[in-house]
Sequence to fold (784 residues):
Amino acid sequence: MIVLEGVSKSFDGGQSYAVRELSLHVNDGETLVLLGSSGCGKTTTLKMINRLIEPTSGTIHVDGQDVTKQDPAVLRRTIGYVFQGIGLFPHYRVTQNVEIVPRLVGWPANKRRRRVREVLELVGLPPDEFSGRFPDELSGGQQQRIGVARALAADPKYLLMDEPFGALDAITRDSLQQELKSLSKSLGKTTVFVTHDIFEALTLADRIAVMHDGRLQQVDTPQKVLTDPASPFVRELFEKPARQLAAFQGGD
Amino acid sequence: MGAVWLQTVANWLNFAAERMPELWFLTGQHLVLTGVSTGLAIAIGLPFGILASTRQWLRATVLGSIGVFQTVPSLAMLAILLALVGKIGAVPAIIALTIYALLPIVRNTVTGIEGVPPEVVEAARGIGMTRLQQLIKVQLPLAMPVIIAGIRTAAVVGVGIATLSAFIGAGGLGQFINRGLALSNMQLILLGALPAALLAMLVDGVIAATAWGMEPVRQRDKHSLKVRLKPVALVMPLLLVALGMYAAFGSSLIAANHPGKTIRIGSKNFTEQLILGELMAQMIEAHTDLVVDRRFNLGGTMICHEALAAGEIDLYAEYTGTGLVTVLKRPVESDANSVFNMVRTEYKKQFNLEWLEPFGFNNTYALTVRKSDARDKVWQTISDLATSADTLRAGFTAEFSERADGYPGVRKAYGFGFAKVHDLEPSLMYQAVANGEVDVICAFTTDGRIAAYDLQPLDDNRRFFPPYFAAPVIRSDFLQHHFEVRGVLARLAGVLDDKTMQRLNFEVDEKGRHPDEVARDFLRKQGLLNRN
Fold:
């Protein structure tokens, strides 16, 4: 379980807040989507969980332990992270990219080798074909599959995903979303997923946390967020695409 | 036209072939100088570059201070290091080369590390790499192409600057260039310059090939021919290093060491100094058991003096006026005897060095005009120029234009200046006055070209120019152990008057003969090589 309590973050010494008084918990095995427009504080929130950003005030517990009490590097190795910019290491082959965290935590070589094959199959890339390639020998979709495989490699209990499919084309994005959905069901990872894409949120989320201007607006199941919005902002957020869709279908 | 050109090339190739063993040896020395200094610069520069990339203020400080070193002119740097290290030879040369190689390496390390895409660095951080792991596993490997570019720049610049190391007796291809410049011998200059240029290209190519060899193989190129060449590329730098070491240290040209039995004779880098060096060397070889180690062509007064004072050489020929003004920093004086006595006592007191009996000639400055002009206008003394000075064009060396005992002093002493003053290379000066491009030059009284170009030195009627009598200067310590040297060098006392020295210089400068040959002929004719 991930628990955030009264978390605030200011980058300018208290003049303005990127995240303000945010309290939230992520249950074991669930996928929680942080949804909001850019600048709403969702990525900042995500990065505070593995201490890429330190909170100004408030506490964050992962697995019952205060994150600020742990060595940040050690903490991050226990939490899989998929990056917005993919962030594969261009000088590493696929194998080296995927096995990096197991290597950091000191798995023996044969265990690492087995695991690389396993996760590559999991993300749908045949190991024999792909393990020797460099990132620039892969398509965008394949690269992000490797990104996911890298995050899964050390079999972490927690996954943080920061708009991982933002840079992909619509078709690739859609298929990756579907695969991720079934994957997280079968693997039972506790996942925090950041996006500004409402349909992506509705597709993947067990629960959606809507953020606006650094504040949490509502945390609920997709169904409840749609039918019972807690604030005018949330209603407006979901109504607009619904209207657009209706108008589009009406004009057909 | 074409045939002449071909003949020139053929002549040069012959010339080069004759000097092959020496060329091979000096190329090896050159490679070792460049290789050691570039290696040191990598070892020092990489950590500094990494450190500088971590903090903004460090970056400014480190790059700034290394940049300052870079602006010190190479010769000045060598002279400063010589004074600091107290040695001539490879040590100060390697330090200087290392300092020059630092900037491109440090700067490219910083640039390379900063150029790593931020999302890659964030990924490294985000998956749990420590600061050190980020650096070693991600930032440095990705910065490597830029860093290697910096190393290439450093090495190529190093090959170039290493030619100057010959000035402080560190050897290398600069020795040919130096000797060539001293003797105005284009063939010799080219024998140093061409191989140095080729060496620069070779070194650049080898480093580039090594970098290519280290790049990982892409899946798609796995079976191409290029891939099979990679191990070859990786062996190339080892070959180059081995070649350099072999040429530099395996050569038979290195004199066997006889500790205590060797005399190291230095000289500055111009014709007269080479002849004087040879005269002393051959006399010592003929009349003592000492083995002579010739450390000729050192780059100027201060370098010779520092080397002598530090015990890196044992003997060289110095001029009384130079000792007084340049070394002892005393004001100009015109009485020959008092100058000699002054340098003799002060050298003994300050440096424990001994001035022996002068050779006889006085190589001072002389304002010099065309003989025809002197005849037509009845010029005999410098004062005779006063009335027409405002129409005369002068051609002076840059040094003469500036020195207190040069043009500024002449103006003060004689109360007139010339209409125009051109800065000219010493070798061009004589031609310029002979061709009528200038009217007055600052000739050296022993320069063979005075006679050759039909020139007339004017009498220094106000006794302005200080005396520059040449004499052997030797370490007192050395003389104590080898007192026989004093007697041998005493036989050279007074044997060279101005005219004789002019003639010997002329033989080398204009007839292209070797200083050692000219010196031997002279000694033979004087019967100085005979045992008495």
